[in-house]
Amino acid sequence: MSQTLSVIKADIGGWVGHTAVHPELLAHTQAALARAVSDGLVIDAQAHTCGDDLFLIISHERGENDEAVHRLAWETFESGAVIAKRLGLHGAGQDLVADAFTGSVRGAGPGSAELTLEERPSEPVLVFLSDKTAVGAFNLPLYRMFADPFNTPGLIMSEPLHDGFSFEVHDRKEQRKIVLTTPDEAYGLLGLIGSPGRFAVKRVISRRTNEVAAVCSIGDGSQLTGRYLGEDDPAAIVRCQGNFPAVGEALEPFGTPWLVLGGMRDSHYGPWMPVAEAQAHPSRFDGPARVVALGFQLHEGRLGLARDLFEDPAYDRARAEANRMMEYMRMHGPFEPHLAAMDEMERESLPATAKLATRWTRA
Ligand code: 13P
Ligand code: MG
Ligand code: MG
């Protein structure tokens, strides 16, 4: 019997500002998910946070884009937004863009990443959570995990990985998608996903078995409508071991704090810091961006205890490096490339730029 892991996420109000999720919101969400488990709607479910984003991790047998599972997420967020408003939280309900639930959270505001699998006797799965970053942030780490033997020796050493992986890439401007295979089409792939604001990896698929190895919450072809439709602060699910990278290979890309778009006012490049869930509360300059890695050893559809995998002194150097990088990037103040490029930000509409509109003369 195949199982589905659904990670559905939203920012329904920040405490304080954009830094964290209020404990009352988290408790409300945990209670709603526990009810869904005891009602038998889903096998298992947990709520986790990264910064001001709330992530529902749900294991069930109802398939992807299932109306009942999506309704559970939507109604949990909707009732959570009522609490957020009562508590006066920042941006209460901000990611619930649709007026009402219409059968799926896709295109309605929240982000979703869903992966269907036949559970193996040992089924290690990682769920990555992020905050203060943007769609496409997982492009680089996913490439390293699944296509770079300097990161993943399994591509050389393990028979099933040796056939390589396919990457489903979405073009957010033209609303189209393409599948490229590695290692043979690696250069073509990099030519696209090196521009993560436009091209974002949605799925990675094993060429050996056709199993989905990883999926990101970047929306899908029909709903590539803009960054505020559940696309920022993405989540990713990655299967590990056997036909997939080892757990340590899937975590290894985060030993480097890559520069990502996000941070203050969603408009600044800064380092992406790997942290334990308890440290995922970006306060300095609404950053640096955070990534949390939760490990699950799935068993009979149950998630079991989540292992907080960046709660490891081996990432101390990456965290120190991220703090140094943040210091350096901040020195640029309102200049690119700390500030995102003008065409990424639609800055023409900013008050300071708009005020000058009538003052220009031909040069
Ligand atoms: P979030 O996308 O995490 O809500 O942050 C928005 C922002 O403007 C931070 O300064
Ligand atoms: Mg927010
Ligand atoms: Mg956020």
Features:
363 residues; alpha+beta; binds magnesium ion; binds 1,3-dihydroxyacetonephosphate; 25% helix
Brief account:
A hairpin with a 2-residue loop joins strand 2 (44-50) and strand 3. With 363 residues, the protein is of the alpha+beta class. The chain has helices at 23-38, 67-86, 139-147, 154-157, 159-162, 186-193, 247-251, 316-330, 342-345, 351-355, and strands at residues 3-10, 44-50, 53-60, 111-117, 123-131, 165-171, 176-181, 199-206, 212-216, 236-239, 259-262, 268-274, 289-298, 307-308.
Structure description:
This protein has 363 residues and is of the alpha+beta class. It has one domain. It has 10 helices and 14 strands. The chain has helices at 23-38, 67-86, 139-147, 154-157, 159-162, 186-193, 247-251, 316-330, 342-345, 351-355, and strands at residues 3-10, 44-50, 53-60, 111-117, 123-131, 165-171, 176-181, 199-206, 212-216, 236-239, 259-262, 268-274, 289-298, 307-308. Strands 5, 6, 7, 8, 9, 10, 11, 12, 13 and 14 form a 10-stranded mixed beta sheet that branches. Strands 2-3-1-4 form a 4-stranded antiparallel beta sheet, with helices on one face. A hairpin with a 4-residue loop joins strand 6 and strand 7. Helix 1 runs antiparallel to helix 2. The longest helix has 20 residues, at 67-86. The chain starts with a strand and ends in an 8-residue tail after the last helix. The structure holds 1,3-dihydroxyacetonephosphate (13P) and magnesium ion (2 copies).
